[in-house]
Task: structure prediction
Amino acid sequence: MTVDSVVEAEIIPIAPTPIVGVVPDALTVDNLDLAYRVRGHDRQVLRSVSFRIGRGESYGLVGESGCGKSTVALAAVRYLPRNGHIRNGRILVDDRDLMSLDDGALRQLRASTVSMVYQDPGRALNPSLKIGRQMSEIFELKGESKNDSFDLSAQMLMRVQIADPLPVLDRYPHQLSGGMQQRVAIAMALSIDPKLLILDEPTTGLDATVEAEVLDLIAKLRGELATSVLFISHNLAVIARMCDRVGVLYAGTLVEEGTTAEVFHQPRHPYTVGLLRCLPRRGRRKDHGRLDTIPGFLPAPGAKITGCVFAPRCGLADDHCRSVEPELYKLGFRRSRCHYHDRAPDLPRATPSDLPTAVAIDRRQQPVLRTTRLAKTFGAGDRHVRALTDVSLELWPGETLGLVGESGSGKTTFARLLMGLVAPDTANSIELDGKALAGRIDSRGPESIKALQIVFQNPDSALNRARSVKNLVGRALAKLAKVPRGQRMERLLALTRAVRLADRYLPARPRQLSGGLKQRVAIARAFAGDPRIVVCDEPTSALDVSVQAAILNLLADLQAERRVSYIFISHDLGTVRYLSDRIAVLYLGRLMEIGPAERVFSGPHHPYTEALLSAVPALDGQTRDRVRLEGEIPSAINPPSGCVFHTRCPRCLGDICRKVEPPLLSADPEHGIRCHIPADELGRAEA
Amino acid sequence: MSVATEVSGATETASTRSARAERLRLLLRSPTFLFGMFVLLFWIGCALIGAQLVPVDPYADDMMNILAPPSADHWFGTDSLGRDVFGRVITGSRDILTIAPLATLLGTVLGTALGLVTGYFRGVIDDAISRLVEAVLALPLVITALLALVALGTSSVTVVVVIGLVFAPIIARTVRSAVLLERGLDYVAAAKLRGEGSAYIMFVEILPNVMPPILVEATVRLGYAIFTVATLSFLGFGIQPPSPDWGLAISESYGMINGGFWWTVLFDALAIASLVVAVNLVADAIHGVFET
Result:
């Protein structure tokens, strides 16, 4: 840390804020050094972090997991875990020094000036109190009477666009959907009319369409109230949409700061540059070449760092970077902690973009997989859930079929049916290479077991934590590929090298590996028996952006080398688009649209697909004409009549949609849309 | 501790130490564990080599010197047959420290197998075995053991088997709940998807991951087993004379307390108490390290 950064933090001019002058900043973090004490040793997690949030301003903090984002948020309300302590620096909330406040004053501040919304609203709300009770508490604390408090709570819920607040007030948190819970949490946070609202990944656990609604709501509320916002997210696009200014955190250090547009369009720090390149953006696809990655790993917390914190992973770093810590250089209204900030945009690629040899897909061939009216009903008696209804599709060798849809759409059920972990309602609805496949894994032959493998979403759950990498992959080779003991080591090394896993990780156990490495082990295991089809069930959703890019590259490379087919399940349309040749859109267990990836994205498309696409925030921060869905995703226990989407469809035609389930109509031979509106009309209305 | 996981989860090899070594290190830093282990090892040592160390043969009676109070020759005095109480206390742990661990081991092995099967298969097997387990859980340990010993005749083997059988369902219940959590994880699905059999999945995939709760439960059970064996011996159905067993010694001598011959009972009672407390301290420490 340098003396310069202290001085600078105080004199730096801030990009235009709505109110300038004597009004104090909502939050000033000044040269903050923070450490967690773990087993008698201080592990520094924040290093001289300085930033300020002006009145009415919305400030975003981005960074990958472990960068210290949440720690900043907790420090801003002085609610650090017991082992966390501030070693240096100041935090001013509304011009009051947080460190000098006694307990009473601190409580007063939390009750009147700052409030926080957490990632998981289901855990932030008290499960044993009705919404009305827990909301009223806030007003009662401010001295309102019981009746007034209840009325005020209802008004707050109206503010967060809950049109009919009374039934909501009478419910327990678990009776509300995730989106509704988060609205309640936001309403509660705003009840004290805070000067500073801290949002810590407020939409991360929500579905895309619900996320879009919540983000719209926050944007609207910001316009109405003069609240300043500290918005924390790992999602660059969400920050781009929500924030005026943004700070990029890396390993507890603020590496770049500026207005959102500047930082995302002309990044001046290699980390920001790398992060942006990792994202599959602007319709980038696997045949356009590999994604760039950020090599290496985040330094361990508390590691001794000399020079620039990013130097070990930076393509521009030289000896100067490795020995001298860069100051936070001031560049107009922005700051960058890089010696070579002017050269940052020219950061050399870490991964060559050369194309993996594209796999030619011959659709005259027999498909490797065909499902015919595949359906699954869970439960028995009158309470049954149709998790999947009549899904018919085909998958050709070497092809990737993307499966998209919100939670409850049947994506995972589809995967589990293919794998034989659950049995379909009717036998013989799955064909592998033209031959009927037994429903359950127990009755499948070794060849079909080998042919179908899966990469699970969460490698922590998918890898047995008691086993070493060598054992995990070796067992799969023994069981699936029937490799004799003598050749096993050789094949093992070939396989782990194919997934770019260094040999030194072989004796490691899963908990000693990072998320990306764990997922590589899982991929190696899936490829042990040279499968025909690999189901990838959200394989990158638990990973950071830079790691995600490397995994997507790996999957594309393996496909090119081995002509394997993928069923790629994801809620992230960017990654689906990057990897998929064709895309299938599911809603409430029904196939709403299927077709070549480009046509599904460019349209004409199903109204639901349209809504999904426009729900994704764009990195350029521009709000397109959004198609917003009304209401909640209906329950699969009691799905709507006719077209299951009619309850939320912005283009519902009326009776026909409510009564008649539309057929999967072909817009052209390869592109099917389940909608009563003819394809050409669907296309026209959008143009 | 969300913050701690955030801090340690992000790095490549934040902890190169294995989980086992880390737990051992924590245990060795726990005073509870160290003290309990010290006492336990003391009694184990006595059981192994105590007979060679004691100055007077614990089995030798001396009719000229019965019920002598503690003295330089007999540190803890002598009992009603004139046998040296000190020697008998020191060597008295031998039988109980054989029978109690064996019974615990039997119960743990049986209980683990039962718990794995019920937790893994669920369904009808689970329902049937679980009802049975609940029935056994309702039986009072000492009375059941007493009845079995009366019916089958007193022998050490019977004691081991009866205590083991009564413990098995208790351990099974603990194992079952741990297995229920594990079987929901994807690695179990992954094992099925490469064609592993149920036995392999239960004993090779799942078992190592449910060892911590099994270990905790087993140490807790060991404490109860010691207590039960001592009780049975006191009642005359456990360890048989002329063993210097503590429970047995108390039952032979408790009538003398009124006569003021306190030394015939006190030292044996203290010995039992110290052993049970030591095992419980160890169990507590292990529980603390594994369950957090």
Residues 1-20 of chain A have pLDDT under 50 and may be disordered. Chain A touches chain B through 52 residues (CB under 8 Å).
